[in-house]
Amino acid sequence: MDYLFHGLLEAFRLLLGGDPETYSAVAATLKVSSYAMAASLLMGIPLGFVLGHLRFPGRRQARLVVDTLLSLPTVFIGLLVYAFVSRQGPLGHMGLLFTLPGIAIGQTLLALPVVIALTATAVESMDANLRVTLLSLGANRRQLMRDTLWEARHGILAAGLNAYGRVMTEVGISMMVGGNIKWHTRTITTAIALETNKGQFALGIALGLILLLIAFGVTAAMSLLRRK
Amino acid sequence: MAPLYRLERLRHHYDGHTVLAIDDWTLAAGSITGLVGANGCGKSTLLKLLGFVERPAEGEILFNGRRTVLRDEAPRRTVVLLPQENHLLKRTVFANVAYGLRVRKDRHQERARVAQALEWVGLPADTFARRPWFALSGGEARRVALAARLVLRPQVLLLDEPTTSVDGASAQRMKAAALHAHRQWGTSLIIASHDLSWLQEICDDVIHLFAGRILGTGLQTLLYGPWQALGADRVAMALGDGQQFVALRQADPAPAAVAAIDPRRLTLLAADQAPSAAQAVMEGILTSLILDQRAGGIHASARVGHTEFRVQLPADHPALAGLVPGRPARIAYAPDDVRWYA
After folding, report:
1. pLDDT tens string B82-109
2. Class of the CATH-defined domain B5-214
3. How many domains does chain A fold into?
4. What distances in angstroms separate CA B53 from CA A21, A133, A138, B96, B167, one per listed residue?
5. Among A53-62, B34-43, B184-193, which is the least confidently predicted range?
């Protein structure tokens, strides 16, 4: 069990010592997860609002599909994206295989159902009188959507955090689409998998702790936002 | 001049169940109108339709003589509804009151106008403006909601049971603020309420809703039955204390028939006064006496069993001498003055 303690020490050494390989993995992780989160929030929040607020034919079926996609395995997404962006795939000409944008596409697919489903739940669980209140004060359709989302902000924040958690911690997509290329597409999670394979447990634990530290920073920033 | 509202062949349904059926009804601008009726009679639905928050399933609502179309924004900027269920946005009191101004992109002197609106409902801005939505009592939250409507200086203000479940002081403040809007800016008020004495006091007209239909106007007393035959040509409704209300049997009696008697057709008998041969008499307790400042008469209310009868009398009526609420009163009426709604 020594490697647990060594891992902790190693984490400090890597971070404080400015280890370039570690920082490259941290940078890749942050970059790719930021792309994926930006894309999934931009698409997922309006779609979640539509699913949670509007009553249209096929809504329940759409909800069922989105809820099922919450259980999408990351390796399966990795496989799908790989099939699309590899040389023979329909998007092969875009050269996305083994790149950070390629990983980001896969992670967006991973995060999107989480953002849509949890935003829809947050909007659905709003007081039924909110709509009447906003309309009775003169809100138009755009203002109705904007302010319903704002009233549901705590639920939507939780949706974002949940999606971020999945994106940050996945290995399957990064490994299959990114290829774990050192200095290039190696993220923290793929680095941990590699170090563990090499028997470098302490280094693996150090990287795991760094991942937790980033998660802590994001969560703390969000909880500050939540007070507002 | 076109009426403020004209409703034509209006029908509204929830889950296939008709909740409102009004064939033709008009309302003049600048008036105060009361809306009374039992819970579930369609008052809230009618107010939501008049406030353009919902669209009628069938029929038309003409506003200022113009047909309104789906999601028409113009009327919703001049008609403002205070819904029955109080809902504040998860923001400060200030942001709640300023919301309507902001959606109208009207930020001119916003701070002063919000403070003034809070003042009208008796909430000093210094103390309340910065409070979050959850740090308010029920009465305060209701007053904030009203201030959020008053700040818009609407042409029409629809109030859905504004003073239900608020304390007496809050209710008084809200009533005064609504009247202020009417007097200052000529705002038309439409008020759904169970507070009949308030409506009696301020309304130009009172509309009775029953099962989604308008059952006449004025402060008539409605009697919902059940009706039992009394001889060949009369029916009676038990009033709950051994007495009964007698009416002439209608031509084709329907089981759900509602009888109505106009307050001017009821009278109070003085202590030593005998009823005329055509009159029936009920004994009840006088519950209120209100001076009608516009018409100059007196509105009296008396309870017989569970039913409150409203009586309109001239101010110099002899029965009023020495009569005070809480004392017994005899109400006389002619059974053939009863009107029927099928």
Report:
1. 999 989 999 999 999 999 999 999 999 9
2. alpha beta
3. 1
4. 60, 9, 9, 19, 28
5. B34-43
